[in-house]
Design goal:
single chain, alpha+beta, Four Helix Bundle (Hemerythrin (Met), subunit A), 4 domains, 4-stranded antiparallel β-sheet, 59% helix
């Protein structure tokens, strides 16, 4: 099958080139028949690339390890879903994915524009096919996804996908980001075609706006899913660290967002045409720059292709795009001059321009911060910088230090610059939609700003007062006032603007619905839905602004989060994080068959402040103890403690209960009884999960559990046992001191578990108290570390407790056989608003793309359900 794929690739190489040349020639000669042939060529190429994709997917599912790409990124144990996503797990597959999606988008765009002017359509089709042809060159000459081993038939098994990519989010994040890059080729093609043909009106804007929305949607989803993946997979408690590759996706997102706003001004006022063409060319260039960045080895990132050899190709491609774009813009510069001008600062168009300036500034700030480590390594840059430092020191008497090595701008620098820029964007987003075109009078401002201002100000003032009172009570007002920083100020400013945006949108919906209600029948909901359909772009934009405001609130929550750094916890020990008490109560190891990894899972009980063990659990444990001993015992609990504390009058009874709970619980779960030796008072056990042995850390895991058996059974005063293990074997013996103890243990092992749901039962040697923790107390969270058989680096699987307004987040570091865990705990307020806001932004974008004729009927049916019109009796 790989030979078939290679043949299809060669065919696609020539058919794509032929289609591009035919489209260009049709545009020059204005030949309708040739243009029709080029259009059908685009459709045929789409089928070719999908056929190539089918061949590669067949090889992935068939484990065709003769293909070097399949052998590198898959293995025989990978789940089916990750075999599917391995398609874009490496560079070769990503190139084929790019070509496949781009030809599909090209076919759709060309088909939709088939009735347009031949020259305009021909240049657009030719540019699209030329972009596809660039990736054909890469695959044919440098990085074929169908390359096979030359000297042998391939390995018996593959290397497997990077464990960090074996995550459900990563099944969607990379293709989303790539699709966002790919989709912007269409706006560039039609924009460049408009410049070439001189069709500089609004026709090209209509063609490109919807494709820009498609690109923007996929970039938005890709970026946020990247943050969601980092939050749940990397185990550091955050969702964005200004990783260079993620920054590469954020940069064109800023410029695409700017274009979506400024194109509205062009269509409404006929201005900003030069700026819009520039933004289209710039954004397309930045999408290729983002792809170049992952392959250039300029940056260090877990996302980058460290072994890529394509950076020179992308550099040349970027240079070609820049020269073509600059040449076309220079050629048409005078023709693009706008006749109208912005005449008043307090106008919608003026705020759109300010919005564009800030968005583009954000793009270049992120680019500068991403590339600064390479720029600062340049001798010429260091010389220029040091010259400026000398000038400042000599002129103004400063004591600035020179630069002699490369510098890196990390997360603190990005936050210090981008947080104020983000607040400025939020301010423009809150004011811009409410003011009028051309000029906003004082009367209009009073009318539209009063309610949003009050609705934002009152809650923020109340919240600030409550926070000051709380912190003043907790640490003293002077101490709080002396430690208040910019993050607190920025947080309250952000909350104020977010509330302003949300109230402003609600006010606009209500005002529009009220006006329409006076003219038409029906209730408010019906008229607001009708208004959304009639003015889809305006009200769809409002929905997106609501999502953006909620996402900003999610970002703002980071200012109030509580973090407890990594803390070593032995069994039964706890730590506080925010208003939660976290207690480590158990650990288990298992090999996940069919997934190729072993998992070490800890159980941590989380209690909210003031909580204790439920009475029902205390009664259940007390009833068990009464059935097992005739000696006196006392059961107690404590606030913020998940343990049931049992004090015995008879130490021997206590030790046997500890032994019974351990033997019937953890011992039975981890080990299998394989032989009895009554003569020597000995029981032979083996590990239930022998697959753990094949892991690199398997021996350490088994050694850890053997030490647990020694510690629990050997640390008792009554019924104590010793462990006899043979190095290199998964079989061991436990020996009791006399026949009576041995018989008691054998009866315990044969009987049903005496008490269900026991997470921990241990004797505290300091207080001589039995500590019992049950699964019915608090919330049991299970952070995990995974050890992959074919990969050296373990991965972290976090555990979260979603409480709506905040989320408790736990991450465990690899223990490598140690009897304790390293636990990182974070309380993230408002984090869910980030994910919810992104979902609303996505739905708003889908609404903008939805055809009007399909929206009308659905909106009418929804209105009938939510706001039925009452029938008038005759």
């Amino acid at each position: 099958m790989q030979a078939v794929g290679q043949l299809l690739l060669i065919c696609a190489f020539f058919t794509t080139l032929l289609t591009a040349l035919s489209a260009y020639y049709a545009a020059v000669t204005r030949s309708a028949s040739l243009m029709r042939g080029a259009r059908y060529g685009v459709y045929a190429n789409c089928l070719l690339y999908f056929a190539m994709a089918a061949v590669l997917w067949h090889g992935l599912y068939a484990h065709d390890f003769a293909n070097s790409y399949i052998a590198t990124y898959t293995d025989g144990e990978m789940p089916l879903v990750y075999l599917f996503t391995s398609f874009w797990g490496g560079e070769k597959g990503a190139l084929l994915f790019w070509s496949m999606v781009l030809t599909a988008f090209s076919a759709i765009a060309i088909h939709q524009a088939r009735d347009k002017d031949i020259a305009y359509l021909g240049w657009a089709a030719g540019i699209l096919m030329s972009a596809v042809f660039f990736f054909d060159i890469l695959m044919v000459f440098e990085s074929s996804p169908f390359e096979t081993f030359i000297s042998h038939e391939g390995p018996a098994d593959g290397d497997g996908l990077n464990p960090l990519l074996q995550n459900p989010t990563m099944a969607v994040h990379p293709p989303s980001l790539l699709t966002g890059y790919i989709a912007f080729t269409v706006p560039f093609a039609f924009g460049a075609s408009a410049l070439i043909t001189g069709r500089l009106g609004n026709e090209w804007a209509k063609e490109t706006r919807k494709w820009t929305i498609v690109s923007w949607l996929f970039l938005t989803v890709g970026l946020v899913l990247g943050g969601y993946w980092a939050y749940h997979e990397l185990g550091w408690g955050g969702f964005w660290m200004w990783d260079p590759v993620e920054n590469a996706g954020l940069i064109p997102w800023f410029t695409a967002t700017a274009f979506l706003h400024s194109i509205i001004v062009q269509e409404r006022r006929g201005i900003l045409r030069r700026w819009n063409f520039t933004l289209v060319c710039l954004t397309f260039l930045l999408t290729i720059f983002g792809t170049f960045l992952t392959r250039s080895q300029l940056i260090v990132s877990i996302h980058a292709f460290a072994d890529s050899s394509l950076s020179e190709y992308f550099l040349v491609y970027m240079l070609v795009i820049f020269l073509i774009s600059a040449g076309l813009l220079t050629w048409r510069w005078q023709a693009l001059k706008a006749k109208a001008r912005i005449t008043n600062f307090m106008s919608k168009e003026a705020f759109f321009v300010l919005n564009n300036v800030v968005l583009v500034l954000c793009a270049f700030i992120v680019m500068w911060g991403t590339l600064y480590s390479k720029v600062s390594a340049s001798d010429s840059f260091q010389a220029m910088y040091n010259g400026g430092v000398d000038l400042m020191n000599n002129t103004f008497g400063t004591s600035l230090e020179g630069m002699h090595t490369a510098q890196e701008l990390g997360e603190p620098w990005f936050n210090s610059v981008m947080v104020p820029a983000g607040l400025l964007l939020l301010a423009l987003m809150s004011v811009g939609p409410l003011i009028a075109w051309r000029k906003t009078t004082v009367r209009i401002m009073n009318k539209v700003f009063l309610w949003p201002f009050l609705a934002a100000t009152v809650p923020v003032l109340v919240g600030t007062g409550v926070l000051i009172a709380y912190r003043s009570h907790a640490i003293g007002y002077d101490a709080w006032a002396n430690t208040v920083g910019l993050s607190d100020v920025y947080a309250f400013i952000s909350i104020w603007f977010c509330l302003f945006v949300l109230t402003g949108v609600i006010t606009e919906f209500w005002r529009g619905g009220a006006i329409r209600k006076r003219r038409h029948e029906g209730g408010m909901i019906r008229n607001m839905l009708a208004l959304m359909v009639k003015s889809k772009r305006r009200y769809g934009g409002y929905v997106i602004h609501v999502g953006a405001a909620l996402a900003f609130l999610g970002f703002t929550g980071a200012a109030f989060k509580s973090t407890t750094p990594e803390t070593p916890l032995h069994l039964g020990e706890g730590v506080d994080c925010g208003s939660y008490r976290l207690t480590y109560v158990s650990m288990s190891d298992e090999y996940r068959l069919g997934e190729g990894y072993g998992a070490t899972t800890a159980s941590v009980v989380a209690l909210r402040s003031g909580e204790t063990v439920p009475v029902s659990e205390v009664d259940r444990v007390s009833a068990y103890l009464e059935s097992r001993t005739e000696s006196t015992f006392h059961v107690s609990t404590e606030p913020n403690n998940p343990k049931i504390l049992v004090r015995f009058s008879d130490a021997e009874d206590r030790d046997w209960i500890v032994q019974e709970l351990y033997l019937a619980g953890p011992m039975r779960e981890r080990f299998e009884l394989v032989n009895e030796d009554p003569t020597n008072n000995r029981l032979w056990f083996t590990f239930r999960d022998t697959n753990l042995i094949q892991l690199r850390v398997g021996p350490q895991m088994m050694h850890k559990h053997l030490n647990d058996v020694r510690r629990v059974l050997g640390g008792l005063r009554y019924g104590a046992a010793s462990v006899q293990a043979t190095p290199g074997q998964a079989r061991f013996a436990v020996v009791w001191g006399d026949a009576e103890d041995y018989n008691k243990v054998r009866d315990i092992m044969r009987a049903d578990p005496p008490l269900e749901g026991i997470l921990m039962a241990k004797n505290n040697p300091v207080t001589d108290v039995l500590e019992v923790v049950t699964s019915g107390t608090g919330r049991v969270l299970s952070p995990e570390v995974r050890f992959y058989r074919k990969h050296g680096n373990p991965t972290t699987e976090v555990a979260t407790w979603d409480r709506g307004y905040e989320e408790l987040y736990l991450a465990m570091r690899p223990d490598f056989g140690e009897p304790y865990i390293q636990l990182l705990s974070v309380v993230n307020p408002l984090i869910n608003l980030l994910w919810l806001g992104t979902l609303i932004m996505f739905l708003g974008g889908i609404f903008l793309l939805f055809p009007n004729h399909l929206l009308v009927g659905r909106a009418q049916r929804l209105a009938d359900q939510l706001d039925p019109v009452e029938e008038l009796s005759s």
